[in-house]
Amino acid sequence: LEEGDGHWIVTLREASSGIEQIVHAKAIVNAAGPWVARLLEKLFAKKPPLDTRLVKGSHIVVPRLHSGDQAFMLQHSDGRVIFVIPYLDDYSLIGTTEAEFDGVLETVHIDEDEIAYLIEVANGYFKRQLSREDVISTYSGVRPLIDEEGKDATKVSRDYHLEPHQSALPLISIYGGKVTTYRTLAEDVMRALAPTFPKMGAPWTKLAPLPGGNYSALFDGKKEELESGGEAKASAEDEAALSALLSAQAPWLQASLLKRWLQTYGTDTQTLVGNASSASDLGIHLGADLYSREVDYLIAHEWARNADDILWRRTKLGYLFDERAKAVLADYITTARGAVTEGVD
What we know:
The protein is of the alpha+beta class. The chain folds into three domains: 2-30 and 158-203, no CATH class; 53-146, D-Amino Acid Oxidase, Chain A, domain 2 (2-Layer Sandwich), CATH 3.30.9.10; 235-337, Alpha-glycerophosphate oxidase, cap domain (Helicase, Ruva Protein, domain 3), CATH 1.10.8. Helix content is 30%, strand content 21%. The protein is built from ten helices and 14 strands. Strands 5, 6, 7, 8, 9 and 10 form a six-stranded antiparallel β-sheet that branches. The protein has a three-stranded antiparallel β-sheet with strand order 1-2-3, with no helix packed on it. The chain is globular. The two termini are 20 Å apart.
């Protein structure tokens, strides 16, 4: 990263291929999450003004603990609250833990004491008692909080902070933040950059549907809500209407597959079905109910690059794939992308 004449000069390197390209930018937003402070230090060869306090949270996935659709908040004796949430029809998701983290970010994983902790909390409330063998899957993440010296990890603020870099050109680093505040955070960032972009328009994302949620384009009843400034949200009736519409258009499509597509892609299911006119148009069967047509869609529209992207970050079909099926999928992706895609970039 270099400062040019009125712009940043950024050298980007694609991790898997090593290909480099140079781009110019009027402003830079450092949204590197837990790497935010490390990236600043690497770019400018000095310790950043704010440091991060890394806190790890982990979850476990177990067989369904209850038959209803309710989510539960469990109060533990240590004062923390643990959630138990229905997950993918057949499972329950339990989490999260909260602990200081000073390990390697690229290989973060759950610890055995975290698994024992979550099982203990759940067993204190549910009739069905869990053991270590019931844990089907786990995942962990690291949250970057602003380091407040002397405070316990559970007491440190979860609010986000925008830190401008001391330079002639705008560079803003985002500390903290979470998925529940991402949109307002993004608006705050754009507001801070407004002087650099005098032609910037007004905020618009509050009323914009997320990908797959554009029911207003399908059902006229939602247009009035948008025009009046309301938030157009999909109702159960909208979802049922779209399901009926696609069932009529593609009667050959298995009901279970259509259900999963609608739950995963919403209105974008129409793009996925496209001009397919029979089951054979779904392409190669790659395992569970995954076909090459869906993989091609995810590569083209959702930037999937490898088997983990498909099985865990897009569809959650990883629970249904064995190692052989994963290898077949990885080979297909390599061929479809025309490049080696092993590993996570």
